[in-house]
Design goal:
alpha/beta, TIM Barrel, Lyase, Ornithine Decarboxylase, Chain A, domain 1, 2 domains, 6-stranded antiparallel β-barrel, 18 strands, 23% strand, elongated, binds pyridoxal-5'-phosphate, Ala_racemase
């Protein structure tokens, strides 16, 4: 009998969420973002779940090569581009699109003979202040790139800092779009601006924001970048992390649970011990009260999460026993809700799924 913990990946939900992204931005082609092992879901599952996407986008060059080896023939985009000149030959060889975000990358291209033409995405820094050329430098970078033999299409690209919060007090999407339009004035080429946040707000931003390509990530995995819920956007969970109760303890008033004795019972308390801990990717800092489902009933974490186990309050589930099913997140318990309780975001939880967790595929409604 293997340990009862496993993650079920719902490929049908991945397809559904991709269709939702298309529905939100019907005029744009879609890069499905599969960086970080498809947000913890497995690169190969990303390829199959998003087979209908117009392209796959990621960060890691070796995984981009793997996508080709797995048979992906549509476009592939490197979201941070190449990291050193030695990687440039991979671009024509595997037909990768590359982001170009700094002058050093342009210089490396100038000194490299491209064996066949490549498409690139010139990134503008419109306020995110991570990667990209300032709006004032953008046209010059574009001209310099244009002059390099073998550069075919140049897509104009930027990235939003606060697409989940339309009225952000410091930097709004509208302001970033305004800066983008100034920097890109008069330049030909397709436009690529929106991440999940931008895609989900497309209806509100219709007057200002248009994309030829969008780059949704987290929404394809049933997470949202902001305050509204997956349900609000009709997104479905794509990963259910489920385990079982492996032990039960009856406490009396004054008894404590686990390391640091962080939970102390005020009265008789039934504690379920669940096979899932921080070495599985469950956040150790999740506090008392973080939601958990036992036999489909909502209850909460008590005490400190340890390496291989955590403890939950069985009061709402009087019939719970050793073997009762526990859902940590996913089907019936949105990952964003667990993340919020733990002071983080759904992205981090899905990406942190640990290698020792068994992963399989299946539809919702059948926890492992
Ligand atoms: C990760 C990433 C995305 C996807 O972001 P989400 O918030 O997950 O939708 C889009 N564009 C770039 C450049 C990225 O690095």
């Amino acid at each position: 009998m293997p340990r009862p913990l496993s993650a079920t990946i719902h490929l049908d939900s991945m397809r559904h969420n991709l269709a939702r992204a298309r529905g939100c931005a019907p005029d744009a082609k879609v890069w499905a973002v599969v960086k970080a092992n498809a947000y913890g879901h497995g690169l190969e599952r990303g390829l199959r779940g998003f087979a209908d996407a117009d392209g796959l986008a990621l960060i890691e060059t070796e995984n981009a090569v793997r996508l080709r080896e797995l048979g992906w023939t549509k476009p592939i985009m490197l979201l941070e581009g190449f990291f050193e000149a030695a990687d440039i030959p991979l671009l024509p060889e595997y037909n990768f699109n590359s982001a170009i975000h700094c002058i050093e990358q342009i210089k490396m291209l100038e000194y490299t003979r491209l064996t066949s033409p490549i498409d690139v995405h010139l990134k503008m820094n419109t306020g995110m202040n991570r990667l990209g050329f300032m709006p004032t430098e953008y046209a010059a970078a574009h001209a310099r790139l244009r002059a390099i033999p073998g550069i075919r299409n140049i897509t104009l690209m930027t990235h939003f800092a606060n697409a989940d919060e339309l009225e952000h007090p410091l930097l709004t999407v509208r302001e970033q779009v305004r800066r983008f339009q100034i920097g890109a004035e008069g330049l030909a080429g397709e436009r690529s601006l929106s991440n999940s946040g931008g895609v989900l707000q497309q209806a509100e931003l219709a007057a200002e924001l248009s994309n030829d390509w969008v780059r949704p990530g987290v929404m394809l995995y049933g997470g949202t970048p902001g305050v509204r819920t997956a349900d609000d956007y009709k997104l479905r969970p794509t990963m259910t992390l489920a385990s079982a109760v492996i032990g039960i303890q009856q406490l009396v008033a004054g008894d404590t649970v686990g390391y640091g004795s962080r939970f102390q019972a005020a009265g008789p308390t039934t504690v379920g011990v669940v096979a899932c801990g921080y070495a599985d990717g469950y956040p150790r800092h999740a506090p008392h009260g973080t939601p958990v489902l036992v036999d489909g009933v909502r209850t909460s974490l008590i005490g400190r999460v340890s390496m291989d186990m955590m403890t939950v309050d069985l009061a709402p589930i009087p019939n719970a026993r050793v073997g009762s099913t526990v859902v940590l997140w996913g089907d019936g318990l949105p990952i964003d809700e667990v993340a919020t309780a733990a002071g983080t975001i759904g992205y981090e939880l899905m990406c942190a799924l640990a290698p020792r967790v068994r992963v399989h595929e299946g539809p919702m409604g059948q926890p492992a």
